[in-house]
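Why should sequence recovery work at all? Because a backbone constrains its sequence more than one might expect. Tight turns favour small or flexible residues, buried strands favour hydrophobic ones, and helices have their own preferences. The token representation captures these environments compactly. In the example below, the structure is given first.
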């Protein structure tokens, strides 16, 4: 991909402001950016809004920022520094705890509860433990979820290969067309798949050690260019 001449960006703007302003200066729509970078349009909007917690992970966020900067012709390094600073500030704000209100004194604190109340509490605890046990068993045997960030189903391309980006659960065995895919510690994955000319049916499956298998299919159409 050829690089545009880099453009200076205004100090004091947020990362999202810089991206949006540069895009508007070049008279590009969100759809134009999606087509040029293959970043799903919803994540282009998230980058411009600064809602970083809605992104699938820092690996994808940084890669998308570099692609976006390349298309807009602005310095990627400065944008990545902005992303790191803004994300750190956002996380610190979210961690600020709400000051708890002083608990009012209750007359029950100074008396012995009747046996019936104690019995009720025991029943509640036992039922809670049984419910937790049932949830744990269901979680072990249920099929793991698979989320595909890109490409979309029925995607069309003229390229000979395509990058499948998505997320599943940690410690899951994931395959694409029966080929094992490596996951990071959070279950994120990125796998390049070769395409044949015409319709490609990509079979994606995920399975934990004792779980059922979750399967989904992606249809990718590789178009061929006819030379007159």
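From this structural description, the recovered sequence reads:
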């Amino acid at each position: 991909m050829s690089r545009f001449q880099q453009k200076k960006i205004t100090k004091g703007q947020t990362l999202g402001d810089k991206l949006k302003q540069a895009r508007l200066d070049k008279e590009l729509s969100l759809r134009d950016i999606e087509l040029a970078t293959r970043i799903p349009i919803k994540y282009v909007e998230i980058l411009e809004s600064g809602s970083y917690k809605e992104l699938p992970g820092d690996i994808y966020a940084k890669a998308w920022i570099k692609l976006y900067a390349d298309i807009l012709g602005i310095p990627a390094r400065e944008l990545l520094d902005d992303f790191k600073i803004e994300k750190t500030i956002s996380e610190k704000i979210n961690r600020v705890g709400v000051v708890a209100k002083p608990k009012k004194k209750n007359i029950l604190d100074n008396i012995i509860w009747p046996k019936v109340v104690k019995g009720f509490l025991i029943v509640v605890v036992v039922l809670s433990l049984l419910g937790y046990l049932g949830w744990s068993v269901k979680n072990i045997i249920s099929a793991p979820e698979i989320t595909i960030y890109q490409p979309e189903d029925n995607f069309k391309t003229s390229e000979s290969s395509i990058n499948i980006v998505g997320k599943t659960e940690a410690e899951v065995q994931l395959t694409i067309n029966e080929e094992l895919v490596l996951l990071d510690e959070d279950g994120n994955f990125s796998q390049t798949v070769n395409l044949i000319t015409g319709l490609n049916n990509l079979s994606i499956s995920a399975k934990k050690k004792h779980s059922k298998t979750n399967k989904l299919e992606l249809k990718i159409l590789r178009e061929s260019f006819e030379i007159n």
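A few observations help interpret the result. The radius of gyration is 25 Å.
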